[in-house]
Description:
This protein is α+β, with helices and mostly antiparallel strands. The chain has helices spanning 8-20, 25-37, 86-90, and strands at residues 3-4, 47-48, 57-60, 65-72, 77-85. 34% of the residues lie in helices and 27% in strands.
Amino acid sequence: MYKIIFTDSYDRKAKRFLKQHPDLRKQYQKCLELLESNPFHPSLNLHKLKGRLAGLFAVSINLAYRINIEFLIEDKVILPVNVGSHDEVYD
C-alpha cells in the first residue's frame, strides 16, 4: 500500500474542486482509493509531466479531470499537488 499525504494547500484546492464539481465526488474518491492501493493501475493513466511541471506525475479522474502528484516510490508516499481540469492543472 502507498500512503497519500494531504497538505493544507491541496486540501483547499480539493475542497474548491469538489464544490465546483459535486457530481465528480465519487470518481474523485475512487481515484484516490485506487491511487493508494495501486498507483500503476491502468485506469489511472499515471504519467510523468514535462516542462515546468517536470518531477511531478498526473493521474486521471476521468477524461477531463486530473490530479497532479509528487510520487515518491522509495517511501511509498504520494503527495497530491493540484486537482482540476486538464488546462487548470497543466497551466
